[in-house]
Write a structure and sequence with these properties.
The protein has four helices and twelve strands; from the N terminus they run H-E-E-E-E-E-E-E-E-E-H-E-H-H-E-E.
């Protein structure tokens, strides 16, 4: 009788250890959104660079998440960033701090635009000269889609994003957990 009780207790302990399996899968998603540059007095000061984020709920319950934050080398970035959800080929801006729900066994794709600071050196500024017209009065210029931009400027993008990560705060069964994923472009 003691052996049966012992086996039941061990089985319960083992199953409880494995019940904390992954509830959500988070990955960077390849997207084809536009990249923008921001100007100040004719000089490029930042790039609005989009990251695709795929959140897949692999549990049997709904999961909520409240924030997606961009971190530079494990330091929370205070740069501006905007979160969007794509619906019918349009980007809809959504709150980064309010809870958003992902239904059980469903996935949602979000786009986070971050402002990446640009070096003011002549060599870096020359990379963007082809996009700036002398009579340009706008402070924000669309410079094309991310795939083309990455092909032409992979060294710059790698330098800007190396060591960076996204941090996502999820809520599951009244527990809050932070998930960190490295940034991939």
């Amino acid at each position: 009788m003691n052996k049966i009780l012992y086996i039941i207790v061990i089985s319960l302990l083992l199953t409880s250890c494995y019940s904390s399996k992954k509830k959500i899968e988070v990955s960077c998603k390849e997207i084809n959104e536009d990249v923008f540059i921001r100007l100040n007095k004719g000089k490029v000061i930042s790039i609005d660079y989009p990251f695709g984020i795929d959140l897949k709920n692999v549990s049997n319950k709904n999961i909520s998440f409240s924030s997606i934050a961009y971190w530079e080398n494990d330091i929370k970035s205070f740069k501006a960033s905007l979160l969007y959800k794509k619906e019918k080929n349009a980007l809809i801006e959504i709150s980064k701090t309010e809870y958003k729900q992902i239904k059980s066994l469903d996935n949602d794709i979000y786009i986070l635009y971050t402002q990446q600071a640009i070096d003011s050196t002549k060599a870096v500024q020359q990379l963007f000269e082809k996009y700036i017209k002398k009579d340009n009065i706008r402070n924000k210029i669309n410079i094309g889609n991310i795939k083309d931009f990455n092909k032409e400027n992979s060294a710059l993008i790698n330098k800007m994003t190396i060591g960076d990560s996204l941090h996502i705060r999820i809520k599951y069964d009244k527990k809050i957990e932070n998930i960190k994923i490295p940034v991939n472009y």
